[in-house]
TrEMBL record:
It comes from Amycolatopsis bartoniae. PANTHER family: HTH-TYPE TRANSCRIPTIONAL DUAL REGULATOR CECR, HTH-TYPE TRANSCRIPTIONAL REGULATOR RUTR. It holds the Pfam family TetR_N. Residues 30-49 bind DNA. Gene3D superfamilies: Tetracycline Repressor, domain 2 (1.10.357.10). It comes from the Bacteria. This is TetR family transcriptional regulator. Residues 7-67 form the HTH tetR-type domain. InterPro entries: Homeodomain-like_sf (IPR009057), HTH-type_TetR-like_transc_reg (IPR050109), HTH_TetR (IPR001647), Tet_transcr_reg_TetR-rel_C_sf (IPR036271), TetR_C_16 (IPR041678). The keyword Acyltransferase does not apply. Keywords: DNA-binding.
Length: 188
């Protein structure tokens, strides 16, 4: 008798779904395609996730401790954030839930809302608080945080969604770090 592990099966389905949604967006991915890739029946996807929408929402759940990268002296903020960003872009290739949300945000309003909520909670607000706590006035801290957030999202969209190459990771990290630092310092 074959033992069944529902948690492992569910995780395998999610891994394949993330990969497919990240590469192809929401519209072209099918329940059958994910089921075939995961080696399961499409009925299991319906049972575990309720269908394609539920599968998408589960695959796009983002939990990234962005705030961990901002602690420290403001003079090193750009370097810390850039290192974290490039590591994520290189390490989560093809399965990054954030990439799933970015790619699907033009197709699905709930993906756009989930991406906006994630960025507000995990990027914009922590940066705003950090910059304010480092001595900037509240409005200035918010403006600089918004500039950093918009810059990183723009670069991510250009490099990951539009499928341009990331290029040399060290050069990318140095450029991102310098640009983020200029924005944090109000020089951008």
């Amino acid at each position: 008798m074959i033992s069944r592990d529902a948690a492992a099966t569910r995780q395998r389905i999610l891994e394949h779904a993330r990969r497919q949604f990240a590469r192809h967006g929401y519209t072209t991915v099918t329940v059958k395609g994910v089921a075939d890739a995961a080696g399961v029946s499409p009925n299991l996807i319906t049972r575990y996730f309720g269908g394609k929408d539920g599968l998408f929402l589960a695959a796009a759940r983002v939990e990234i401790p962005v705030a961990d990268s901002i602690h420290g002296d403001r003079a090193g903020l750009g370097a810390r954030l850039a290192a974290s960003i490039v590591q994520r872009w290189l390490g989560a290739h093809g399965e990054d839930p954030l990439l799933v949300l970015q790619r699907a945000s033009g197709e699905r309003p709930e993906a756009a809302e989930a991406l906006a909520a994630f960025l507000d909670t995990n990027s914009l607000e922590p940066l705003h608080r950090y910059l304010r706590d480092s001595g900037l006035a509240d409005a200035e801290a918010r403006d600089r945080a918004a500039a950093i957030d918009a810059f990183v999202l723009g670069v991510s969209t250009r490099r990951r969604i539009l499928r341009a190459e990331l290029g040399d990771p060290a050069a990318l990290e140095a450029w991102l770090g310098a640009t983020i630092q200029r924005l944090a310092d109000g020089l951008g």
